[in-house]
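WARN retry 2 of 3 for item q-0093 after timeout on previous attempt; input resubmitted unchanged.
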Amino acid sequence: MKTKLLSTLLLLFVGISNAQIKGTVTDTKDKPLPFVNIFIENTYKGTTSNEDGNYELNITEPNTYTVVFQFLGYKTVKKTVNIESFPYELDASLADEEISLNEVVITTGENPANVIMRQAIAKRKENLEKIQSYKADFYSRGLIRIKDAPEKILGQDIGDLGGGLDSTRSGVIYLSETISKLEFLRPNKLKEKILASKVSGDDKGFSFNNAIDVEFDLYNNTIELGNQIISPIANNAFGYYRYTLEGVFYDDRGNLINKIKAIPRRENDPVFEGFIYIVEDQWTIYAAELDITGVQARIPAVDKITITQNYAYSEQNKIWTKMSQNIDFKYGLFGIKGDGRFTAVYSNYSINPGLTRKDFSKEIVSFAEEANKKDSLFWTSIRPVPLTEEEITDYIKKDSIQIVKDSKVYKDSVDKVNNKFKVSNIIGGYTFNNTYENWSAGITSPIEAISFNTVQGWNGNIGGFYTKNFDEYKRFLTVNGNINYGFSDDRLRGTLSATYKFNNTSRPFLTLSGGIQATQFNATEPISRFENTVASLFFEDNYMKLYDRSFVQASYSEELFNGFRLYTTLSYERRKALFNTTEQVFYPEDDDVYTSNNPLDESAYGIAPFETHNLVKLNVAARINFGQEYLSYPDSKFNITKDKYPTLLVGYEKALGATNEDYNFDQVKARLYQSFNISNKGRFSYNIRAGKFFNADDISFVDFQHFNGNQIHVSRSGNYTDVFNNLGYYDLSTNDSYLEMHAEHDFNGFILSRIPLLKKLNFNLVIGAHTLATPDFKPYQEYTIGLDNIGWGKWRFLRVDYVRSYQSGFASDAVLFGLKFF
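OK item q-0093 returned
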C-alpha cells in the first residue's frame, strides 16, 4: 500500500514540476473534451488532450505564444499568452460549431456534395504530392481493454492476463507508449527511430506501437487496413460512395469548411462511412471521422474501427498537415469483448527537407540504446498527451504486480499449482514448468496421436520434450523425442532431435536428429494422419503411402545478410519398403479393396517400389526475399516481407555413396512465389516451381519430385497455390525436369458485392489456374472457381470450389470443400 501511495505521489509531483503549458479543455457545460488538437499557431508544435480533457504542451522558452484549440464540431479557440515562467496553466472552453447549410449556393441541380467531392478528387494527387518528404516527432499510445473475460477459451485457462483483470474480469490488458523520430519520402519510404518505449507491466518490454502501422493517408486511393480500403477521395470513389453535404462552417482563418457525409453504396464493400471535412477552394482535407466494420475490413474479430484525423495549416509551408490521429475499435470473438484506442501525435514537422532515397535503408524501425529503460521522470517530461487516471492506475498496479511475479517465491508457487497432474492431462498431455529458471519438460498425449494406416494398422505416438530459454527467449535449446508403435506390424519406432537457436538477429538454428520412422514418400505430407484415417476406415481408400526411414541428420540455417537465408541439411539414411499388414475397415464394400502400399502400382501387393539401400543426402538452399525490410530491436531483428516483391528459393540436392550406385543423383531446383493486392480488386497469388535431375534415370522412387495432390477433395489450406486438388498424390512424380505453376485470385468481394441478394451473403469469388509439365506426361491443367468466406457472422470457415482438370482433353471434375478452422 505504501509503495502504491509513493508511486502515485511521485507521478503527480513529476507531472506538476515538469509540465510546461498545461490545462483542461471543456465544452461550455464544463464537460471534458478528449482529443482536442492543441498547438502553437503557425507551427507544428502540438499535442492533444487525453480522455479526461487534460493536455500538456511542451514549451521550454518563455515568450509570447498563440495557443490554438481545435476540435471537430466546436469553434476553434485561440489564446495569446505571455509566458515568463513554467509551468503555465491555460484552460480553454470550446463552444459548439455553428454548422449550417445557409451558406451553400446551389447553381445547378446537382448534389452540392458531389460537386465538392469531384473538386477534392481532382486535386487529390496534387495535394498528395505537396509533401514529398518530411521529418517529424511522433508519439503513440496504445490501450486495449477487455470486458467480462471468460476464465477459459477453448478449454484453456487464460488467468488474469498479467494482472489486468478486476473482480468482474474486466480491465486494461495492454497499455504502451512510444516516442519516435520519423523520416518520410514519397511514395512509401518511412523510417522510425524509437527513442523511448514503455509497456505497462513489463519493464523490459518493447511496445509494438509504431508509425508504420498507422500511416493512413486518405490522399492515397486505398488504405491498407486488413483489406485495401477505398478512400472517400479516391479516383474511383464515386463507384463506392454516395455523398451528402451536412453543412458548412468557417474556421479561425476564414476558410469555408464543408462537412461531407460519405455513405457506402454497398453494405460489405471495403469502404468507410462517416464524415470528411473539405476546405473550400483549396479542396484539401481539414479533418476526418470515418468508421469501418470488421466485415468490410476483413478482420473478423473486430466489430468496428473508427479513424479520426485532424489537420493543421502552416502559413510558412502553405500546407495542411496531419497533427493527430485516433484509431478506436471494438472487438469480440470466442466470448471475449472489449475495446481500445491507438493515439498518435505528429509534431515539429520539417516539410520537404530534401531527403533522398540514399537517406533510407531496409531498416525501417530502430531503437535507441536503452529505449525501454526510461524512468517516470523522463516520460512525464516528454509525454505530449497526459495519462488518464485509468492509465496511471494501470501502470502503478502492473509495475507492482511485476515485482511480485518476477520473484522466485511467486513463480515457484504458481508452478506448484500448475504442475499438479490432472486426469485431463491424459488427453491433453502434461507439462512441468520451472518458470524462474525458464525451462519446461513434458509429454504429449498418446490419445491425441492415435491414427490408422494400412501399413501399421492402429498406431499411436507418445512424445517427450524439454525446452530451456536463455536471454529473455532470444536463445533456446529444445529437445524432442517421439515413440511410435504400430499394432498391426508390431513395430516400435522412435526419433530424437535437438535444436539450438544461437541469437535473435540472424536467427541461426542448428538441429541434430535421428531415429526410425514410417514416413510418406512425399516429404511435404500431402495427406494428414487424420485425413487418411477417415478415408481408410470409412471409405477404404488408403491414399497414404509409407516407407521405412532410419537416419541421422544435421541441419543448419541462418540469415547471412538481410533478405538472404541459407539452409543446409546433411543426412545418412537407410530406406526400406513397407507393405500393407491389415485390411481393417469400418464399412467394407464387396467391389472395393485397399490398394497396395506401392505408389508406382496400386495392384503391386508385396512388390517393393525400390530396393533397400543406404545413402548420404545433401541439401543446400537459399531463400531470397527481394525488397525485405526489417525492424531492429536490441539484440533482435524482425523481417518484413514486401508484397511488392517476390520471394525466390534456389536449391541443390545431391545423393551420394548409395549402396546401389543407380540411386546417386543431382538435382537443381527453384521456386518463385508472391501474393499482393491489386488495388481494391482483390488479392493475386502465384507460385512457380521448376527443377532438373541429373544422372537420375534409375533412382529410388523416394527421391523423385512429388507434387501435392488431393484425392479426398477436402482441404485445410486457405490458399491453393501449392496443390493440385484433382490429382492423385503420386500420379505425375518425376525424376527428370519439371515445371509447376499455380495462380489464384481472390476478388475479396469486388464482384459479388455488386450482385443483388448475393452481396448480402458477403462471399468472395475465387478463381485459379494450375499446370504441371514433365517430359514423361502430357501437360496437366486444373481450373477452379469457388466461393470463400462462407459462414455466418464472424464464423467464416468454409470455402467451396468447382475443379475441372485436363490432360490431353478433359480428365475429370470435382467439388472441393475447404475447412479453415483446423
